[in-house]
C-alpha cells in the first residue's frame, strides 16, 4: 500500500516537471511500457499470495486509471499549447499591401461598342444581333444586291460552300433584314458586330467590326438621319460642335445614299476631330431602298426609314489615337495594358463615356 502511495507521488512529481508532448510520451513508456514501473507491478501480481493479491490488484488498477487520466489531461494541454504557439507565429500583417494580381483590361473595340450602345440607347435604339455566318440572301439579295451585281465583287467575300449559299457576313446590314422580318415597325435598332472580308493591310483586317443603324417608322426623312448622326458624332467624340457634310454616294440598299465626312485638323502632331479644313470619311448612310423594305415585308406605302453603317475599329482608332488596325487583333497584353480600359469604368451618359 505504502509503496503504491509513494510511487503515485513520484509519478505525479514527474508529471509536474513535464514541458512537452515528447517528454510525456517518454514518461508513458517509462511507466506503462513493456518494462515500465506499473507494468512490472502487474507482472509481480502472479507472485503475490492470493489474499493480498486482490487488494493490491485493485489498488494497482486505481493508480493506473489515475495515471492514464493525467496522461490524457497533459496530452490535451500540450497539444493546445502547440496550436497556440503556431497561431502566434502565423499572424497575418494586414498592413502589408496585397500581392498584385494580373489585371485585365477592356479592349478598345469593346469599349467603343459600349460607348455607342450608350449613346444610341439615349436616342431610343435597342441592340439587335445576327449571326457571323449568313446566307447570301440576307447578306446581298434582300439588300437589293442581286447575283452578278458589281457591289458583290467589292465585298471580297469569304464563301463557305461551292454554291456560294453560305458566307461570313461582309457587313452588319443583313441584321436589318432579320430585324424587319422578325418584328413589326416602328423599328429602331443598332447592330454592332463582327464582319469579314478577304483583305489585309494597315487599315484592313480580314475580321473587323461594324455598327449598323436602322430606324423604320412613318414620316422618317433625311433630316432625321442627319440629326441622329450629328448627335451621335458629337457625343462619341465628346465635343460640342462637329463639322459634318453629306456627300452623295451609292449603296444598293439605300436611295438616296450618302457618305458622311467630318472635319478635322492636325496641329503639333495631334488630331482634333470636329473642326478644321480637312475632311475624314466616317460612315455610309441613306434612306432604306423600297426594294429592301419590300423584301423584308414592310409596307412601303406606310413606312420608310433611314440606315447607316459605321466602322467601329476606325472609330476607336480615331478617338484613341491608335495607328495600326492590325494591332487590335495581335492579342499583345502590353498593347492592351496601354490602350485598354479599366473594367470598372463602364461608359455611361451621365458620368461620361471615356473619362
Ligand atoms: N454596309 C455598308 C458597308 O459595309 C455600310 C452601310 C452603308 C450601311 C450605308 C448602311 C448604309 O446601312 O445605309 O460598306
Number of helices: 12
Main sheet overview: 8 strands, mixed
What is the tally of beta strands?
10
- CATH homologous superfamily title of the largest domain: Bira Bifunctional Protein, Domain 2
> What is the radius of gyration computed over CA atoms, rounded to a whole number of angstroms?
42 Å
Number of domains: 2
Overall CATH class of the largest domain: Alpha Beta
The portion of residues forming beta strands comes to 15-25%
SSE run: HHHHHEEHHEHEEHEEEEHEHH
Low-confidence stretches: none
In the CATH hierarchy, the third-tier topology of the largest domain is known as BirA Bifunctional Protein, domain 2
Shape: elongated
Between the first and last Cα atoms, what is the distance in angstroms?
92 Å
Hetero ligands: 3,4-dihydroxyphenylalanine
Structural class label: alpha+beta
Going by CATH, the architecture of the largest domain would be: 2-Layer Sandwich
The percent range for helix content is 40-55%
**Mean pLDDT score:** 92
What features would you describe in this structure?
This protein is of the alpha+beta class and 355 residues long. It has 2 domains: 2-89; 108-339, Bira Bifunctional Protein, Domain 2 (BirA Bifunctional Protein, domain 2), CATH 3.30.930. The chain is 41% helix and 21% strand. It has 12 helices and 10 strands. The chain has helices at 2-17, 21-32, 37-44, 50-89, 108-122, 136-139, 150-154, 174-182, 222-237, 290-295, 312-320, 333-339; strands at residues 126-127, 133-135, 166-168, 187-196, 207-217, 244-251, 254-267, 270-273, 278-288, 304-311. The strands form 2 sheets. Strands 1, 4, 5, 6, 7, 8, 9 and 10 form an 8-stranded mixed β-sheet that branches. Strands 2-3 form a two-stranded antiparallel sheet. β6 (244-251) and β7 form a beta hairpin. α1 packs parallel to α4 (50-89) and α5 (108-122) packs across α11. The longest helix is centred in the N-terminal third of the chain and has 40 residues, at 50-89. The mean pLDDT is 92.
Amino acid at each position: 500500500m505504502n509503496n503504491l502511495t509513494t510511487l503515485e507521488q513520484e509519478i505525479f512529481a514527474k508529471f509536474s516537471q513535464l514541458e512537452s508532448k515528447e517528454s510525456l510520451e517518454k514518461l508513458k513508456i517509462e511507466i506503462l511500457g513493456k518494462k515500465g514501473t506499473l507494468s512490472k507491478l502487474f507482472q509481480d501480481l502472479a507472485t503475490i499470495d492470493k489474499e493480498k493479491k486482490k487488494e493490491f490488484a485493485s489498488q494497482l488498477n486505481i493508480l493506473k486509471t489515475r495515471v492514464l487520466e493525467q496522461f490524457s489531461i497533459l496530452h490535451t494541454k500540450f497539444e493546445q499549447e502547440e496550436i497556440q504557439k503556431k497561431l502566434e507565429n502565423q499572424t497575418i500583417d494586414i498592413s502589408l499591401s496585397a500581392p498584385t494580381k494580373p489585371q485585365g483590361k477592356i479592349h478598345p473595340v469593346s469599349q467603343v461598342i459600349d460607348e455607342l450602345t450608350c449613346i444610341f440607347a439615349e436616342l431610343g435604339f435597342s441592340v439587335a444581333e445576327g449571326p457571323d455566318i449568313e446566307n447570301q440572301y440576307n447578306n446581298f439579295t434582300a439588300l437589293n444586291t442581286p447575283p452578278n451585281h458589281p457591289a458583290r465583287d467589292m465585298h471580297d467575300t469569304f464563301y463557305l460552300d461551292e454554291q456560294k449559299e453560305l458566307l461570313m457576313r461582309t457587313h452588319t446590314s443583313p441584321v436589318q433584314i432579320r430585324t424587319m422580318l422578325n418584328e413589326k415597325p416602328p423599328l429602331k435598332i443598332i447592330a454592332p458586330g463582327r464582319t469579314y472580308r478577304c483583305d489585309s493591310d494597315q487599315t484592313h483586317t480580314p475580321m473587323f467590326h461594324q455598327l449598323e443603324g436602322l430606324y423604320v417608322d412613318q414620316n422618317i426623312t433625311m433630316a432625321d438621319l442627319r440629326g441622329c448622326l450629328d448627335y451621335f458624332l458629337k457625343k462619341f467624340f465628346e465635343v460640342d460642335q462637329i463639322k459634318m457634310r453629306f456627300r452623295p454616294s451609292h449603296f444598293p440598299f439605300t436611295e438616296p445614299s450618302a457618305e458622311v465626312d467630318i472635319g478635322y485638323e492636325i496641329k503639333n502632331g495631334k488630331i482634333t476631330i470636329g473642326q478644321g479644313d480637312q475632311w475624314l470619311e466616317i460612315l455610309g448612310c441613306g434612306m432604306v431602298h423600297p426594294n429592301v423594305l419590300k423584301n423584308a415585308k414592310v409596307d412601303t406605302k406606310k413606312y420608310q426609314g433611314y440606315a447607316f453603317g459605321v466602322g467601329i475599329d476606325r472609330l476607336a482608332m480615331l478617338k484613341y489615337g491608335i495607328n495600326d488596325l492590325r494591332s487590335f487583333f495581335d492579342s499583345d497584353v502590353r498593347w492592351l495594358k496601354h490602350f485598354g480600359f479599366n473594367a470598372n469604368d463602364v461608359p455611361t451618359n451621365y458620368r461620361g463615356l471615356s473619362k
